[in-house]
Amino acid sequence: xxxxxxxxxxxxxxxxIFGDRLKLAEQYVDLLERHGVERGLIxxxxxxxxxxxxxxxxxxxxxxxxxxxRVVDVGSGAGLPGVPLAISRPDLDIVLLEPMARRVDxxxxxxxxxxxxxxxxxxxxxxxxxxxxxxxxxxxTARAVAPLARLAGWCLPLVRPKGSLVAxxxxxxxxxxxxxxxxxxxxxxxxxxxxxxxxxxxxxxxxVVLIERTEKRKTARSRRQAGARSR
Length: 231
Prior knowledge:
Ribosomal RNA small subunit methyltransferase G; Rossmann fold; globular
C-alpha cells in the first residue's frame, strides 16, 4: 500500500528484491510520484517508470556490496541509489552526500518519513573539507553523476584501500572504461570491471562498473623522492 492507502503498482520483482521491506519501497515510490517533479528531483516522463528504471535498478547493486559495509552515495539527488539500497540492505551504514540544499532537505524528509537509518550530508565529494568530514568508506556509489574519469577523481579518495567504487552506468559503459582507463589508474583505481546486477530478476539488469581502490596513491613529491633514491 502507498502512503495514501491506495493499491501499490509494485512489479513482481519488487517483492523479490525488497522482501518484507516492500512497504517501505512502496512508500518511497509514492513520495517520488507525489513530489518528485515539483521539487525538481525527476523529470515528468520518469513518473511512470520509477520502479523499473530507478528504484529496482538501484536496489540490485546490493549484490556487489559486502555485508555491513559503510557506503557513501555521492550525488544522491532524489536518493538513488542510496535510499533503495538502504531499504533492501538494512545492514549497511549509508551516507547520502548531496551538494544542493533543496535535495538535502528532501533526503532528510525521506529518511525521517520512512524511519531509515541514514546520514544525510551536504557537500561535494571533490572538496577536501567534505572528504575529511565524510571519512573513508568500504564502498562509494554513484548514479548518473559524471563520466568515469571525473567520477574516479572525485570518489576514489573517499574509498579505503581495497574498497570499491560502484558506478551505475548505461549502454556505453565499456566504451567509458576503455576511454578513461588511464585516468582511473591515476586517480588510484585498479583495472575497472563491468558486471550486471539483477540478472534473472529484472528484465533489464543494471550495468555497473566496479573499480577497486589500490593502495594509497603516490603524490608527485613521493614519486620524485622515489626517483631520487633510485639514481
